[in-house]
Amino acid sequence: MTNRHRDFLPISLGVFALVALYAVANDQIIATVSPDHFLVYHPRYFPFDNVRWQALCFSLVATGGPGFGWGILLYWVGHYGPGPVFGRRATVLGAAVVVLVTATAAWGSGWWVTRLSEPFYPAFFFPSEDPKLYFSQTVQLTNYIVGLTGAIAWLAAIVIWRRRGLPPPNET
Description:
The chain has helices at residues 3-6, 8-33, 36-39, 51-79, 88-116, 131-163. The mean pLDDT is 90. It is elongated and about 50 Å long. The chain is built from 6 helices and no strands.
């Protein structure tokens, strides 16, 4: 097994763990602030009446594919193609920065909505005019928008870094 292949599991599982941990924490807070977000406005896929269990299940299901998929893509763009291999530490650290920026934007937009008591996004995103739902839905929508944008930006940054032939970040 080459060093290139030894990075696959640490990167893919490391990125999945970052995304899943944030999603679980995020949804547990939303379940506290706006229980109806999970109990009324989500379909009942899981056999639990407890809002915390509903939030846990939704967060893990919602992040399983995207989190692991993003980790695989990060491994792939960092290890195949022209340029030096992009190391696991730098790859996962960059993913952590994306998660942190996403969380800051999401919770900042949620805070803004609580200050205005009006939706941040167009009204068709909100099934009711409940201020708690404005908050929870705004946080979730911002998570998806900023998270996807950040994930694509980090993938592109690695590709550009490698194509320019820059030495990989320090992996010591």
